[in-house]
UniProtKB/TrEMBL annotation:
Protein source organism: Candidatus Avelusimicrobium gallicola
Subcellular location: Cell membrane
PANTHER family for the chain: BLR6921 PROTEIN (PTHR42718:SF46), MAJOR FACILITATOR SUPERFAMILY MULTIDRUG TRANSPORTER MFSC (PTHR42718)
An MF annotation (GO) of this entry: transmembrane transporter activity
Main location as per UniProt: membrane
Membrane-related topology note: Multi-pass membrane protein
TM helices/strands, residue ranges: 12-30, 50-68, 80-99, 105-126, 138-162, 168-188, 200-218, 230-247, 268-292, 304-325, 332-351, 357-378, 399-419, 439-458
Domain Major facilitator superfamily (MFS) profile: 14-461
Keyword terms: Cell membrane, Membrane, Transmembrane, Transmembrane helix, Transport
Recorded GO CC terms: plasma membrane
Domain of life according to the entry: Bacteria
NCBIfam families assigned: efflux_EmrB
Name the record gives this protein: Major facilitator superfamily (MFS) profile domain-containing protein
Amino acid sequence: MSQQLLNLPRKWLIFTVTATGTFMGTLDGGVVNVALPSIANQFNANIENIQFIVTIYLLAVTCFLPIFGKLSDLYSRKKLYLGGFFVFGVGSILCSLAGSLPMMIFARAVQGLGSSAMMANSQAIIAKAFSGKDRGRALGGIGAVVALGSLAGPAVGGFLIQHFGWPSVFWVNLPVCAIGIWRGLQIIPRFNPKSKMRMDMWGAVFFLISCFSFLYALNDGPSKHWNAPIILGAFATAAVFFGLFYYRERVSKTPFIGLSIFKVRAISYGYAVAVLGFMAVFTNSVLFPFYAADILHLDPVQTGLLILPFPVALALSSPISGLLSEKYPARLITTIGLGLVIAGTLMFSFMDGETSFFYIALAQLIAGCGSGTFQVPNNNTVISAAPKNKLGIVSSVNALARNAGMIMGIALSVAVYAAVQNLFISRGAAPDAAFLHGYQAAMWFGAAVALAGGILSAKRD
């Protein structure tokens, strides 16, 4: 179906299907974060190990994004997107049945593959269905859906855990998957690409090995120690295969990604800002539930309620940011958004065992508003600058940048937390005091990353 035939009502019907997948992914993230302490108790795991439930999902999503994005440029975006729904549903069933931490990690990897297929195609489908001002509004709407999923996640997760146990948090994905597949078959057009180019399989393999090795080493470095042979070997493997990938990109007639996209200033700066922005936002995602449980001694429902202000602010700021992007430069809006992320993260860095709920809620609101403000115009800038025949790969690498930022934000914040906590424990500090010192240091790290992103955003065209 050509873009000319997509009238406004049909465009927004397509939007509802992509929004369904986005909602499910963010809902799952929220309920899993709230469930982490309960899952940790079930499997007798510490923070350094339990974080892999989150990061293995992000690893699978991130590493396969360019592959699914490239396939969407060559084959059917519709089939890949709806196939992602199905695989995500299978992964959710496996998660609910997991009887050990390794089984849970495997199931989350399956979920990640499904989510990757959806995420790689979501923005590309939006970009094909919408153009001009409508595109900014649609991306702003997706940002609001992200917030609604995040908003519902902690509340739904807390309720389910309280009454049915942690396995129940994965059941909620199944009806959403069924609805998404059913409506997608009816509504999403084929959008079959005209290109007959083939995918460079060697380039894809080299990229996959390099990406996974690097992110694995980054994630496991804090728990296994940075000088452990397996971590040093993973970093070395990442470097070798990245070199092979780069060489393959230079000599292949049909490169896997095509390094020419990074010569477009709007795209390269947008990617860098996405990495830094999401690193800053995710420094608090794993640590805060443990702060609420171990320092404030809150139950899952109360923890979920304290997380809610962040997605509320995200839901309100995302569509507003989309509308503002029609009138003002992306550089201005994204820089203001990252400034708010800095302010909110700095507020987290001053929290202790006596911090009021009002203060915590205000910090969540400011950080959430900053996240929603910087994301939409940054995404729109990247997508609008993409060549038509590389829309899928540009969109998927944009998603890769976001997810790589999430993984690095989680891994490095936990590393900072663990290092500072261990330092204070070695000096004889009480466990709660050592936790707070580690938590506060991690939040200072997040603020510094957001500052770097804000400076880079201010410098772009």
